Amino acid sequence: MKASARAVVIGGGVVGASVLYHLAKIGWTDVLLLEKSELTSGSTWHAAGGMHTFNGEANISRLQKYTIDLYREIEAISGQSCGLHPNGGLMLAATQGELDSLRLICSRARYLGMETEMISLEEARNFNPLIDTRRFIGALWRADGGHCDPSGTTNAYVKAARTLGASVERFTRVLSLAARRDGTWDVVTDKGTVHAEHVVNCAGLWAREVGHMVGIELPVLAMEHHYLITEDLPELSGRAKEIVNTTDYAGEIYVRQERGGALIGTYEPHGVVWSPLRTPDDFSMQLLPEDFERLAPYFEVGFRHFPALGRVGIRKAVNGPFTFAPDGNPLVGPVRGVRNYWVACAVMAGFSQGGGIGLVLSRWMAEGDPGQDIISMDVARFGAFATPKYTAIKVPENYSRRFRLAYPNEELPAARPVRRSPIYERLRAAGAVMGANFALEHALWFAPAGVAPSETPTYRRSEAFPVVRAECQAVRRGVGLYETTNYGKYEVSGRGARAWLDRVFACRLPRPGRLALAPMLNPAGRIVGDLSMACLADDRYMIVGSGFAEEFHLRWFSRAEPPPQVCVRSLASTLTGVSIAGPRSRELLQPLVRIDLSAQAFRLFQVTETAVGFAPAILTRAGFTGELGYELWTTPDYFATLYDDLWEVGRNLGLVHFGGRALSSLRLEKSYGSFNKDFRPDHTPGETGLDRFVDFDKAEFTGRAAVLAERVAGPQRRFIVMEVTDADAEVIGYESIVKDGVAVGYVTSGAYGHCVGKSLAAGYVPTALAREGARFEIDILGEVRSATVRLQPLYDPQGLRLRA
Ligand SMILES: Cc1cc2nc3c(=O)[nH]c(=O)nc-3n(C[C@H](O)[C@H](O)[C@H](O)COP(=O)(O)OP(=O)(O)OC[C@H]3O[C@@H](n4cnc5c(N)ncnc54)[C@H](O)[C@@H]3O)c2cc1C
Questions:
Q1: Segments of 582-690 assigned E as strands
Q2: Strands (DSSP E) along 307-365, which ranges?
């Protein structure tokens, strides 16, 4: 075994094999994969090998397509067959909601360059004669996908990696990891120690244990999963082509051909966690006992929906474990606070996702950046809240929903509430319907008396629509209160804080007493944060950003290596806040403070520390609604009192609560983009319009060269807001924007603009097409609608109300 390597990959399943191949391909040929047993011996060997491009996140879909297309490449390099059956995929809908979901997939697929279409059930039967079409109302066909041989595919990666110079040691168990002072690792194995610059945890079923080796608790857990292989089916004999891999959402069943028979698998509602506390060391190439009694009702649904399957015997049954993160997406990337330790685990669809994960992780390791937005599979989307208890509840919930469609207005109930602000009960009493962001409960909308505080999951407008309209109108006409505790909050302080922030952020830093909008860029000049920065003193700053990105941003800050005298800390649990917005917000606040809030005395983007009623607070004049507004921050012990004080004054002013839904509507009426929806690490300042906050004159900041180059060349595409012909549904995200039959751009977010009376969609189109009044088409749930660009905000284009 080698004594040293640039990177050691722990685990020889399909994910570790892909990471090894991609590291070698990017030029890190001095890489070593360690596998404690035989390759594939964890969850890989018994997988059904299904592969598809479907994912709710467009970037993950794209990486899944990359994975599927890659198999021809590794077959060619390695000479090893992946056993490909590229026969495409069918998705079947039995309800209106499922049908809407398939239509959304179709609308998205055009821009992604994926061949997808809605087909009739008769056509679906041509692709798969086993379907009982009476059970369904619609079908979608996808050209990409099929299935592969798990062992062949893993070996093809490994052989291709070896061809490029990578090494593999089988039957070599990593026992522990010891960090050296310089950030490199001693990888201690049962065959000796390897010194490595980097280690990658691709330990699949043992990812949790390899996390423990460096003192971290990864939110990953294995579930048992069953599939059956039937005896030969007469319906399939003599067919020229294999049946198309079929997903039946209503039945929570997948079916594909396996030789002359069929393979049928199910994701049952009450799944069983495997090895909840510790994965056995000696588990290798093993299956678990079948539990037909438990699974029978669910397979019987399959036999009803695909009746031929019930008429033949079962040749083989498989029950094997594989791992999930709480939201079902992989955990990929570097872990904050553990230098040169990377993870690529919790991969529940290794044959659809393994290649893409290898690609982005290898770029991240070799070039310092994954090269594209992968926030939805970044390990940093989980924070300290993802404790073992949280994971143990969320993973089974996710498993039970593996084949349920995720409605855009749906909030999942498991492990709720976990994090609550001090006014949680007060908001609930006021009718708040809650969502969870980074496990913190926050209000989406407020059910008035007589309206149930719940919502039917739908892709179309729900019962909340008129309620949200009333909230929006009340804010624009009077004053509303929105809790901001779920924002990400940080304090940067100490001598040198200003100089460090000046390098990390692209904006001009605010003077004491001022607040600035503060884009943060990666070295490639792409947006990794759209934050605000309040200068409380020359050496003390409060920074506010998206709550879900707290761990992501903390990791970013620590990567930027603040000097020892600069302290960067999260205020997540130590600062609570509300935003008040609307033309009467000054009247609401003035009686509670001793400072003069008049327009000249306390201007837009001013910040001060002052008492608000009983509460010592940080007060800024800012907001996200486009109205006169203030944000108030105080510590949790004062927060309920601050809230009560505001209500005491507000009652006479018609103060209302508003939630996240209303905010989405209000901000789009003002054409404000939102981080993670509209602004992501795929976008540049020029494309988003955030370039107006970039200080191009600064001598140094991360991403400077790239943004200067973009300023000269001009952005390729632009963020725009469009008004869409009105119907009963808004855009959801990632729908294709079409011009003359060609998909030229894509949607990032949408909402109904209740105060402008228009359905709104935000997205990106090529710069040359981003002109006032330009018309496009967007397929919304199967209906082609006209979308017209509005370069000026539809509401208060001059910003007079904001500055009032
Ligand atoms: C019944 C079933 C059906 C499935 N069907 C599909 C499907 O159709 N399509 C699909 O895409 N996915 C499917 N999957 C999921 C798929 O199997 C996983 O996504 C995939 O195997 C994950 O691969 P991995 O490399 O992350 O993990 P693993 O395959 O578990 O590999 C991890 C490896 O790390 C090694 N290791 C662990 N600890 C150490 C250590 N300390 N030292 C050295 N080596 C170590 C292990 O021995 C193991 O080989 C299925 C899974 C099951 C159970």
A1: 607-612, 615-620, 629-634, 656-657
A2: 314-324, 331-334, 341-345
d(CA 750, CA 405): 19
φ and ψ at 614, to 5 degrees?
-75, -15
**Atom 27 of ligand 1, residue of closest alpha carbon:** 204
The structure tokens 């330009």 sit at 774
d(CA 682, CA 662): 27
Please, what is the Cα angle at 751 between 748 and 755, to 5 degrees? Answer: 140
Contact status, residue 236 vs residue 46, Cβ threshold 8 Å: no
503 pLDDT band (50/70/90 cuts)?
very high
Ligand 1 center–CA 200 separation, angstroms = 15
29 vs 517: CA distance, rounded Å? 43
Quote the pLDDT of residue 665: 98
**Cα(470)–Cα(640) distance, integer angstroms:** 25
Cβ neighbours of residue 227 closer than 8 Å, sequence gap 6 or more: 48, 263, 264, 265, 266, 317, 318
Q: If you search the block for the tokens 């009044």, which residue do you land on?
A: 773
The pair of three-digit structure tokens given for residue 347, joined into one six-digit string: 């991969």
State the helix-helix crossing angle for 150-163 and 350-367, rounded to 10 degrees. 20
Binding-site residues, ligand 1, Cβ < 6 A: 10-16, 34-37, 41-44, 46-50, 173-174, 202-206, 210, 225, 227, 318, 320-322, 345, 347-352
SS (H, E, C) 208-256: HHHHHCCCCCCCCEEEEEEEEEECCCHHHCCCCCCCCEEEECCCCEEEE
Substitution site in 148, 226, 291, 322 for ligand 1 pocket (most atoms within 8 Å of beta carbon): 322
Q: What is the pLDDT of residues 274-329, one digit of tens each?
A: 999 999 999 999 999 999 899 999 999 999 999 999 999 999 999 999 999 999 99
Kindly report, residue by residue over 655-667, the tens digit of the pLDDT. Answer: 999 999 999 999 9
Q: Check the CA dihedral 336-338-340-343 and report its sign.
A: negative
Comparing C-alpha atoms, which of 189, 221, 197 is closest to residue 207?
221
Dihedral (Cα; 174, 176, 180, 186), 10-degree rounding: -30
Neighbours of 36 (CB within 10 A): 23
Burial 451-463 (b: 16+ CB within 10 A, else e): eebebeebbbbbe
Amino acid at 349: A
Read off the tokens for 485. 């505790």
User: What is the rounded CA–CA span in Å between residue 203 and residue 207?
Assistant: 4
Cβ atoms of 750 and 761 within 8 Å: the answer is yes
pTM of the model: 0.97
Q: What is the mean pLDDT of residues 8-36?
A: 98
Give the pLDDT confidence of 180-238 residue by residue, as tens digits. 999 999 999 999 999 999 999 999 999 999 999 999 999 999 999 999 999 999 999 99
d(CA 479, CA 351): 52
CA Rg value for the chain: 27
In testing the pocket of ligand 1, which one of 170, 206, 221, 283 has its CB within 8 Å of the most ligand atoms? 206
Q: How far apart are CA 202 and CA 34, in angstroms?
A: 10
Q: Which two tokens mark 620? A: 């800024």
Q: Which atom of ligand 1 is nearest to the CA of 254?
A: 8
Q: How far is the CA of 13 from the centre of ligand 1 (A)?
A: 5
What span, in angstroms and rounded, lies between the C-alpha atoms of 771 and 260? 57
- For range 34-46, the mean pLDDT: 98
